[in-house]
Specification:
Layout lengths: L1 E3 L2 E3 L10 E16 L8 E10 L7 E8 L5 E6 L4 E5 L12 E5 L7 E8 L2 E6 L4 E6 L8 E19 L7
Amino acid sequence: MSLENGRLIQNPVRELEAYRTRRVVHQNIPVCGEINLPGVRGRVLDMTVSVRPTGSERYRWFRIRVAKDGEHETIIRYRPDQGTVKLDRIRSGLPRDIVHTRSFLVRPGDGEIKLRIVLDRYSLEVFANDGEQAASAVIYTRQEADAITFEAGGAAMMDVEKYDLDFDRQEA
């Protein structure tokens, strides 16, 4: 945590970067409907997704589905018109009656957002706009559910930078 311009900022610890392996980068990817990207999957990862409108047309919503298989998934949804990010665990594998969704406000900004997502087996952390907002959740999906997809309601453009995290690796 840090204080920047009077705002509390929360980001993952810098030491996490020492465990990054297998970098995958996709830039200027158009998203209209649901897509997946080569090399972007996993359950132990550090991924940054930047989303922006294409041209003058604004998209209505943007979703990232993680820990996904045919039955389960956890959804990170951004609605630029409301300035909200929502974590949706309704289909994340826990049948008990608990709070399955969490929403938080983000800085308004012409439909652009930067989301850093850290997955670690049974946990999900989301950091919006370089740590201006953060949220975490426990997910119960089986470990084999490792697909990640991206989807937009309307047309959006995105950049993705994804690293696997190898916590068994010894630091040099």
